[in-house]
Amino acid sequence: MSNPPTNPPWQTRPPYLPTSPSADVQKHYSAQCHCGRVRYWLSRDRPLASKFCHCVGCQALHGAPFQWAAIFEKDDLHFEPGVVEGGGLAFYHAPTREGRYRLPVKVSCASCRAPIMDEGRRMVLMFPAIIEFGDAEHKKLFDPQCHIFYSQRVVDMPDGKPKWTGLDGKSELMKDVG
Ligand SMILES: [Zn+2]
Ligand SMILES: [Zn+2]
Fold it and tell me: Which residues contact 154 (CB under 8 A, 6 or more apart)?
């Protein structure tokens, strides 16, 4: 009898696996939650994509009219020593409405509750609002390319960027008005 294969525990997988900067893995940005207990750094100089999500779920979970998320590989995000081991992270599995680690999972600071990221099955959507950008040029690299779930918006954003009724590329484009 063999046991069914099990996934390795989340603490031993990126982005939670302890890593140190090196010649190949450079620290491009640091970020910290509002209270400073959760700190991490990014080893990629710009996100794969960046979006504003206007869905009602993001509105409820972020307490904001929309959410700003930047997509990275799981290997790009590295928590500072002590954060993961010290229980600094809180988890929420939205599909079952349970506060536990299960993908896709919402990750926040266990103390100040600042949203840190959404960990999907293959990527992370992190929230750039807590990144310490050195200058406007670097911040510009995180500018969103589009708006998603714009049909659920509470505020118009006539910025000329593509506006999708749902997911980008998988829903209808909306007219930019305002
Ligand atoms: Zn915090
Ligand atoms: Zn959303």
Answer: 54, 59, 65, 66
- pLDDT value at residue 5: 67
In a domain, 44, yes or no: yes
End-to-end CA distance of the chain: 65
58 CA to centre of ligand 2 in angstroms:
4
21 alpha carbon – ligand 2 mean position (Å): 32
The number of folded domains in the chain is 1
Instruction: Decide if 143 is inside a domain.
Output: yes
* pLDDT at residue 1 is higher than 70: no
- How far apart are the CA of 1 and the centre of ligand 2, in A? 44
CA 61 to ligand 2 center in whole angstroms:
9
pLDDT tens-place string over residues 13-66 = 999 998 999 988 999 999 999 999 999 999 999 999 999 999 999 999 999 999
